[in-house]
Amino acid sequence: MSEQFKYKSNTGEDRKQALLTEYMVREQARRDKEALLDLLGSESGRWFLMRMLDVTKVNSMCFTGNSKTFYNEGRRDVGLGIIKSILALGLQGIGLKQQAEMEYAEFQLKLQELAVEYVDNNKEE
């Protein structure tokens, strides 16, 4: 019998390793979910999340016509993974993501107003 098709027992050490792996994956997913809910549960956490989505350029064009496209796509894929994790939280995650987007958009508008005011007040210098 070739090595490729050899039957693997699901008892003994193989079973123990499978159970350990299953536990570790499940525990890590639980902690990830808790951390994401904590992050989305605070205004500063939502701000950080939106900045990360901006940095990863999930809503931007990635194609540059050269090898930088691959770098951009890799960065964007990280942001898409974050969004996928948020959506996996269900309606609660979607609602918190929308709240983060609204707060971020409001801040961007306020920042534009403040920047114009700052420039207007410092023209004389």
What does this structure look like?
This protein has 125 residues and is mainly alpha-helical. The chain is built from 4 helices and no strands. The protein has helices spanning 12-40, 43-55, 68-87, 91-121. α2 (43-55) runs antiparallel to α3 and α2 packs across α4 (91-121). The longest helix has 31 residues, at 91-121. The radius of gyration is 23 Å and the shape is elongated. The N and C termini lie far apart (85 Å).
Keywords:
single chain; 125 residues; mainly alpha; 74% helix; elongated
Task: Quickly describe the structure.
By secondary structure, the protein is mainly alpha-helical.
Draw up the topology in text:
Elements: H1 12-40, H2 43-55, H3 68-87, H4 91-121
Helix pairs in contact: 2-3, 2-4
CA-to-CA gap between the ends? Answer: 85 Å
Q: How many structural domains can be distinguished in the coordinates?
A: 1
Order of helices and strands: HHHH
Question: Which radius of gyration do the C-alpha atoms yield?
Answer: 23 Å
Helices, by number, come to 4
The biggest sheet amounts to:
none
Tell me, rounded to a whole number, the average pLDDT: 90
Extended strand count: 0
C-alpha geometry: elongated
User: Low-confidence parts lasting 5 or more residues at pLDDT below 50?
Assistant: none
Helical content, roughly? over 70%
Strand share of the residues?
Answer: under 5%
Output the structural class. mainly alpha
